[in-house]
Amino acid sequence: MNAITDAEFEEAVALAPETVRRYLSGKGWHAERDMSGGELWERLPEDEPGPPFEVLVPLRRRRDYAGRVAAILETLAVAEERRPGDILREMRLPPVDWQFLRLVPPGPSGTAPLVDLVSALTGLKELHTAAASSALTPQAVQPGQKPREVKDHVAAVRLDQTRVGSYVVAAHTPLRIPSRQEAAWQAALFDAGPFPGGPGSRASEPYARQVSRTLFAGVTCARAAADETLRQDSLSDFALYAGAGLSANLCEALVRIAGEERRQFSMAFAWSSEVPMEQSSPPVTITQRHVEILDAGAKDLRERLGRETGAILHGFVTKLHTEDRDNREATIYGSFLHEDVGRSRRVRVRLRPEDVDPATRAWRNGFEVAVTGDVESRGTGVRMRDVAAFVVRPE
Fold this sequence. Notes:
395 residues; alpha+beta; five-stranded mixed β-barrel; 13 strands; 38% helix
């Protein structure tokens, strides 16, 4: 299992010493001392007592360079319980931040029910979307319409091979490291502006690192808010954590990861050594009880703070409500332009006086309508208020 193949041996020649050291640093290894022509790196075993793992990293390419790198790969394969080829492939990746989602599904280790995995991957996508949105604009309820930066970030997230464990989904996000010229420009900009710290402050980080950091902070705060609720036996104010990356959207993503059975899961984080991360980032475990509280917290945030302005609803009028002549309403079955295609729902819309006749014609003739207004959560549904435009199609 841990023996390197001939093809992998040939590939090892192409690895630069800096690449090997960067990988070791990102995995928790530490350079202990210099030895003849190399550096001795060590890492203690994570789950069992015993002497540390050791590898000797060559500082220069010599005749035996490939053999030394091959020995490092075989030692790493033992330490990480992975094939040398998988480690070699990861070493050749550009700088990336990692997120490891550890599921605990029933059945043999290394397998997961399809329905659990689909839910978990959908939740992971929504988790990145929520964190990317909060990295730009922290708020308790993120709007459905996402900026281009958020969409581009989510599109750049890659899934890697699963890791050893019950079922571990590995995802990574590439970091765009600024060139020296860009870094100098950023340094001049931030030193001259109101941002303390200059380069190396959060503002000068790659956006993908800001998202990774916000993702870790948001998940950590979600766990903290749920723990506080358990201690107080009453729902804590999740909005207090919005500035750190917690949002109703992030809580909903965590609930989706847990699936219909609301199974326990955990998330771990690893950071590219190209952009040092000084803050400790221990794994975060979300239990079934936490999931129930996060669900309640997300609903509370949406009910109190979930008003979204300028939403566009496409659909058909299915009912006119005439009980209150001063506040005419219509039920429209359709979907919002900013949401996933195919997600239809019934939305109760408060009509302006000039909207009553067009809504009536659309209802009688089965015409499609497009309505622009503000959307807010009410109980298990949504309502639209402050209508700005009511258009009947094909009129």
